[in-house]
Amino acid sequence: MTAHAVTLPDLWMPYPVRTNPYLPTLHEAAETWAREMGMLDSDQAPPTGRAIWSRSRFHAMTVDRLTAWTLPDASRTALLLNHRFNVWALAWDDYFASAFKRTDDLAGAMSFTSRLHAFLPPEADARLPEPRNAVERGMAALQQHLFPAELAHWRLELNRALASYIDAGVQELANSRAGRVPDVIEYAQFRRESFAAYTAPYSVELATGGRIPERIRHSRTVRALLDAFMDYMGLANDIASYEREVHEERDVNNLVVVLGASLGITLHEAVSAAVDLVNARLRHFEHLRRSELPLLVERAGLHAGERLELETWLRGACGFLSGLHAWYTGAPRYAPANGSFPEQRPPFSTPLAGERYASPP
Could you report the per-residue pLDDT of 80-129, keeping only the tens digit for each? Predict the structure, then answer.
């Protein structure tokens, strides 16, 4: 470890990554849909104000690998639907960062988010507004397909999760504008919302057809397992995307920054603590899955069909985590140019090597 860089450490991942056999069908299908939604511009020219990506930049993100790695058992239909969902989430993220975070436009972000709420109705027959941009157009299109009969029970919960996701973007911008680093205790819950982690159980259910039986869904063990499952996603992303978020987007909403500020430690120490925390959340997920969940299944007296559905969902959840890990560590979207965290001082004064974060008052 040098004085000029903090080497990006490895995260623990016990599950092998698997690839969905329908991966080859995603590349062209995703481009067609993104272009229909107005998310893509010409191949070489930079995106116009209306589009979000150039064609070359879109394919460089390798979103098709993300989908195929996280949902290795999905049917072609389920894979394509979830792929559109992933494309939309990244479109929202990049549009929001470009239009509002990088321009420091909190009022514009609030107005944009308020309109987007109208595209997340709890009722199946709600009439949506006329879309004004690619993000609204993409969500309007998704609302027509996200809730087939077997997933109709997800409508309220999924749209609530998406509403929390876009609201969290506004809160992230407000935090960055004020230089307010979130407290370490509040951050885990906030990160589940800002990463849209509450939508992941839906994606696993869509892909596998398995689900958590209703009789145990709200138990302490299952709630803890889902929390650990979701925490890995967003907190591991914070480590992978540190350079992009902190140095390019001037964002204070990142686990490394949060730990540094809350604990008053150096950047080197904060990176190490972040890795330890993410690994601990995955170890807790494994403990619950292997040790506590089987006891709960026995106590609840789940029948063979319910147990099979649960096992199918759990296998899908493990595959989802391994796919995310593979994408975080191999996708150009997050890879630093030299594989390391730069030690330069970002705009909100993250400490240099050897300095310490200021402890909160």
Answer: 999 999 999 999 999 999 999 989 999 999 999 999 999 999 888 889 99
Q: What is the CATH number for 301?
A: 1.10.600.10
357 within domain boundaries? no
- The full 3-state SS of 126-164, as one line of letters, equals CCCCCCCCHHHHHHHHHHCCCCCHHHHHHHHHHHHHHHH
Number of domains forming the structure of the chain: 1
348 falls within a domain: no
Q: Is residue 69 part of a domain?
A: yes
CB atoms within 10 A of CB 148: 12
Q: How far apart are the first and last CA of the chain?
A: 31
What six digits make up the tokens of 94? 């990049």
Closest CA relative to residue 165, chosen from 189, 201, 193: 193
343 token code pair: 């030690």
For residue 77, the enclosing domain spans: 5-342
Q: What is the pLDDT of residues 288-317, one digit of tens each?
A: 999 999 999 999 999 999 999 999 999 999
Q: With contact defined as beta carbons under 8 Å apart, do 175 and 181 qualify?
A: yes
